Amino acid sequence: MDTVSRTYRRQAKPIDWRYVRSIELLACWANPPKGTEDENVEPKKLLIKYARQPDMASLFNHASMAHNNHFFFNCLSPNRTSIPPLLEEQLTEDFSSLETLKREFIANGSAMFGPGYVWLVKATDTSKFRLINTYIAGSPYPGAHYRRQPIDMATQNQENVKGLSGEDFARQNNVQNTVGMMGDSSGRSRIAAGGVALIPVLCVNTWEHVWLRDFGVAGKSWFLESWWDKIDWNVVAHNADIHIKRSIRM
To answer: Which residues of 64-86 are buried (b: 16+ CB within 10 A; e: fewer)?
Structure first.
């Protein structure tokens, strides 16, 4: 059995069909062809590697979904867990209280128009926590969505380029995005200018197949409320690498 399927089958717990069936299907579709250099590469590395390649969109989508879905289930516990004091202290500092974090998590998930994930992430430079949303198979990793294109070529036409200097006209009529799989910028850092280096520590899956069967058509918020009580805070603390107090920021 290939590495992707083997990894997720080994780690899956018998919690029900939402995990086992979806992960097995995603892992099957995310498998690179046998005999290639990617045959034994894990989904996270695959999604970052192929995020820039349009011709590998299917592999990116399924690898990203397999990774995201596993991340979601890995942060769950069948029993209520206590949040480690140091993690609670830092989350309270960034969100004013755990109750506020809960309400923002649930509000973000309830308001999402379409499937995706809500993520609690930690900035690696400041150690501050924040919430972000990703849709469909989107990834929270900054290396998965870097683009270098200062001009939106889809908005340029003969009317709005009148009056430009020769240099500006030439720049707007030549492809600016050379950061893909080829080009002189393809080897540069995958974090966009102004982007934030971050690590995901917790997420909730808002795809309909996760909650519709048990909570009903109007039960998304009910699902999110129930999910909060099943978070494994020890896993979250491990993901966030919480082991020392933050330095005092002036």
So the answer is: bbbbbbbbbbbbbeeeebeebee
